[in-house]
């Protein structure tokens, strides 16, 4: 019985290890997603109007692409009114960038100022190379 439990535990751990991030393809550009504030979520939605393969990152061919992300965040009571509860927003942001390079890693960061979401694309040297535009928000 102990061997069965031990084997089941090891198989479970092995299965979880298989769900890590894949290794970047050196022939493509890799875009990490980073929500800058606590209690927020940032997910990959689309590349060039096609569903993203994985919600945790983008991997694209070199060249020009349009990325769409989903950013969920709370608007704090200080931005609403003195007795208000935080208000959750569910927004989409779109970003066009014309010069993705093979083998390069980029980082797409998102945050908000009050009700307004923002997104910025950084290259490997931490230079801002693109900015996202809001593509619609709703309360959740």
UniProtKB/TrEMBL annotation:
This is Lipoprotein. It comes from Pseudomonas kribbensis.
């Amino acid at each position: 019985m102990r061997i069965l439990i031990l084997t089941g535990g090891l198989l479970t751990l092995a299965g979880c290890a298989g769900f890590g991030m894949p290794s970047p393809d050196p022939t493509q550009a890799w875009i990490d997603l980073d929500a800058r504030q606590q209690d927020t979520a940032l997910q990959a939605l689309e590349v060039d109007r096609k569903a993203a393969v994985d919600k945790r990152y983008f991997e694209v061919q070199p060249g020009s692409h349009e990325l769409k992300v989903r950013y969920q965040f709370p608007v704090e009571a200080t931005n609403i009114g003195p007795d208000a509860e935080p208000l959750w927003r569910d927004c989409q942001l779109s970003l066009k960038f014309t010069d993705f390079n093979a083998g390069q890693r980029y980082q797409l960061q998102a945050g908000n100022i009050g009700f307004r979401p923002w997104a910025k694309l950084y290259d490997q040297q931490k230079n801002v190379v693109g900015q996202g535009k809001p593509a619609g928000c709703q309360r959740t």
